[in-house]
Amino acid sequence: MARSAVYGDFQTPLALAQSVLQRVASFGQPFAVLEPTCGVGHFLVAAAETWPGTPLFGVELLESHAVAARSRVPTAQIQVGDALTTDWSAYNATAPLWVVGNPPWVSNTRISKEGGGNRAERTNTAGQGIDAITGAANFDLAEWLLRRLLADTADSTLFVQLVKTSVARRLMPDVTALGLWRIDARKHFGASVDACLFVFHAGPSAPCPIYASLAADTPMDAWIPVREGVIASVHDEDLLGICTPAWRSGVKHDCARVMELRRRDGLLFNGLGEVVDIERAYPLLKSTDVHHGRAVTRALVCTQSHPGEDTSTLQQTDPKTWAYLQSHRDALAARRSRIWAKSPEFGLFGIGPYSFAPYKLALSALHPDLAIRLLSPVNGRPVMVDDTCYFLPFDTLEEAREVQSLLSLPRAQAFLRARTFPNAKREITLKALQQLDLGKLRDAGPSPHPPSCFALT
Length: 457
Ligand SMILES: C[S@@+](CC[C@H](N)C(=O)[O-])C[C@H]1O[C@@H](n2cnc3c(N)ncnc32)[C@H](O)[C@@H]1O
Description:
Blueprint: H1 3-7, H2 14-23, E1 32-35, H3 42-50, E2 56-60, H4 63-72, E3 77-80, E4 97-101, H5 108-113, H6 130-134, H7 141-152, E5 158-164, H8 165-171, E6 176-183, H9 185-189, E7 195-201, E8 208-211, E9 221-227, E10 230-233, E11 248-249, H10 256-259, E12 260-264, E13 267-269, E14 281-285, H11 287-292, E15 298-301, H12 314-317, H13 319-327, H14 329-333, E16 359-364, E17 373-375, E18 384-385, E19 389-394, H15 397-407, H16 410-417, H17 430-434, H18 438-444
Parallel strand pairs: 1-2, 1-4, 2-3, 4-5, 6-8, 14-18
Antiparallel strand pairs: 5-7, 6-7, 8-9, 9-10, 11-19, 12-13, 12-15, 14-15, 16-17, 16-19
Helix pairs in contact: 2-3
Bound molecules: S-adenosylmethionine (SAM).
S-adenosylmethionine binds next to helix 3 and strand 2.
């Protein structure tokens, strides 16, 4: 198991730690500096250079890192210890304290998967059930630790933290944010995450200035917590609401070699190379097809019209489909996700009346350009998309066209781009798409001056 998987071990390069401390010089000067998971100590080195003579404290779980940090900054008091159980109130005597650093970039789910023990108790209220399955309930160790530090240290404590931007967003409603500077995590850490420098202290939430990079002096945007789980840019707050119709995920089946068919020479083949002749083959596009605007060449073996539907009725209604499923019963029964345990045999996920809407506006969740494609029926059947796509369902072509032109407005594009997660598993989430209120967009009409910022979240 890679050590970084459980300890979130991404050491900050010294040059980055120095740039961070230069950037926050305008917030004043600390009486003491604490780095709760100090690693090999680059932030403490930078602090010793920036504020000579200032008391420096570090805590680190791994002895080898603590030894390295001590040799780099002999003046710092560095303890080997577990940041999850350390009593931080002991540092309150050193006010105003600055808590600097880069807490572990690792989620509880990841630690559990790796079988590690570096796991905080969950204190947040992220969703359960479907959220846990889709990963929306993923909970970050850094967030847990920072909330604990906020609770244990004096209100005058200033937090100067390199974190995933998602962690900053989650903290924003509960702290006074002073600024968020984007960081190129791939360049500095070789990690594909959206990361930032987040500076904040205890207190009521406030609009947070957003800067394009550490070098930027002028904010390009400001974010405000609007309601539970929603952060808006000040530029697009008026478009926030709930999208009607609702955005949907495409169909999930977890057995491509049986459930996905390719059309060649007028015949359908499955992934095992077998010719398949069944009643319930629906045209299918995957995210790359949607991204490139390709014509339909695939089909989906569509076994249900809603998730709980009993598939045994196919035996009477669609005997060829039933026979095909029977002959691949073992492959379908071996699907691993726990959603299949609760599903009828041969069941699908993400299927519902909306999947059969004749017209759809679809986008790939895996591509950053958010190209929205209008899908029309093929041979009289609605086109399905797979679960790496999101879509809006429509009964008529006119409705679909009207919404397509609304979504192509610069304001709508900017709203959506502002909610992308560059380099994340999914460039945009269903929740983020769902925040764009089409009614408000319609009422607002085209804006002559779309905001020029974004690609942030
Ligand atoms: C993202 S690295 C950052 C290290 C250092 N703060 C820096 O900026 O270079 C996270 C550090 O947290 C340490 N760590 C992980 N879990 C910890 C825990 N429970 N208590 C203390 N340190 C921990 C890791 O060993 C690693 O050094």
